[in-house]
Amino acid sequence: MQVHCICTHPLMRFPPSSSKFLRFSKHFHSLIAPSSSYSSPNFPCFILAATMSTDTLPNPSHTTTQRPVQVAKRLEKFKTTIFTQMSSLAIKHGAINLGQGFPNFDGPDFVKEAAIQAIRDGKNQYARGHGIPDLNLAIAERFKKDSGLVVDPEKEVTVTCGCTEAIAATILGLINPGDEVIVFAPFYDSYEATLSMAGANIKSITLRPPEFAVPIEELKSTISKNTRAIMINTPHNPTGKMFTREELDCIASLCIENDVLVFSDEVYDKLAFDMEHISPASLPGMFERTVTMNSLGKTFSLTGWKIGWAIAPPHLTWGVRQAHSFLTFANSTPMQWATAEALRAPESFYVELKRDYMEKRAILVEGLESVGFKVFPSRGTYFVVVDHTPFGLENDVAFCEYLIKEVGVVAIPVSVFYLNPEDGKNLVRFTFCKDEGTLKAAVKRMKEKLRK
């Protein structure tokens, strides 16, 4: 029996109203599984092609027929994630993957050894729901160093399954159906999907190149007494923007005036290169209305461990923990012990981390500029956004397809991070969380094969 199986994640949006995105989904389906006998465009999420000998298997007692996938209406517009599609194509075409944001190098030995020791010490059963005490304490200690805020590790810190679950628990625990939530586009794809699951009314404000500055007047006209929360991601994925103190002060003032919450995704806080990272919770009057979310994975290059957390005052933590209890309840016990060890790393670790990533950023940015891209500033994260239009392709999806098939490099089309894909059709995202050899090899391919 031969089985070829590609499983992909159901939470990426390709708007049904956009024919080009339907064509995109169909096209990648045919590229990824050309041998599959099932070719319906409504079935991009799971592809199974199998051949088996009838001599070795009994006759089935029932006849199976192909059926359309079933999904709740609140999620039916979300399709296969762009990250899964692009990573699959990278393998198929032997392309260098500068698309998905996971490092191709390992995390620090002292953290891995701490996890191994925890396993050997028998710390392998269910952890306390909101986190083992030592990790909650380490998170509180780290937050005090970074923001100056003193939080209660027992009442104001909740350990989650990565920051994505912190986002989900925060939204599902604090947002009611019909609540208005403001997001800044482009945005991390889980925001819209989770807000849709919560039944939120999403209001999108677009950040535009080159600086991706917050349009303050538009924000003022959008926020109202009906607004329940604003989602902030700083440093910002996918653009590399960092919210300035002036922008955050304005957002804070509007939130206080209109009694609005802030959900602040800060997973790239240690990858702030050109300006100081500011946690919105640290601004006057904001801790009481802010949920701060973070994780281990980005800082320590251990994205597969999925240890995250949410910090919030007790009256907000209650809702977060209620949702968390019925999402994952508890998270990997030995990895929590190791995360506590990681968060107590000396400051020299973070200095070296930033220096290494700034060197990687320089290699990629200089390379992209030499190829002919218009490169926008990346002041944080490990992403760079560029304008692909000098190369004459119709849109970002077409360009990324060409880049994979003809050049052998993977980038991510940024239009998938907008409610209105047209807003991002000229932009693509590259990541530099790869070793220097990989970055230089990708630049070399683009210099040799990419033509205007």
UniProtKB/TrEMBL annotation:
Q: Would the keyword Ribosomal protein turn up in this protein's UniProt record?
A: no
Cross-referenced SUPFAM superfamilies, in alphabetical order?
PLP-dependent transferases
Q: Which NCBIfam families match?
A: PRK09082.1
InterPro entries noted in UniProt: Aminotransferase_I/II_large (IPR004839), Kynurenine-oxoglutarate_AT (IPR051326), PyrdxlP-dep_Trfase (IPR015424), PyrdxlP-dep_Trfase_major (IPR015421), PyrdxlP-dep_Trfase_small (IPR015422)
Question: Mind telling me which Gene3D superfamilies this protein's record contains?
Answer: Aspartate Aminotransferase, domain 1 (3.90.1150.10), Type I PLP-dependent aspartate aminotransferase-like (Major domain) (3.40.640.10)
Q: Name one Pfam family in it.
A: Aminotran_1_2
**Organism encoding this protein:** Stylosanthes scabra
This protein's record includes keyword Transferase: yes
Q: What is this protein called?
A: Aminotransferase class I/classII large domain-containing protein
Give the Aminotransferase class I/classII large domain ranges.
Answer: 96-445
Q: Which cofactors does it use?
A: pyridoxal 5'-phosphate
Print the keywords alphabetically.
Answer: Aminotransferase, Pyridoxal phosphate, Transferase
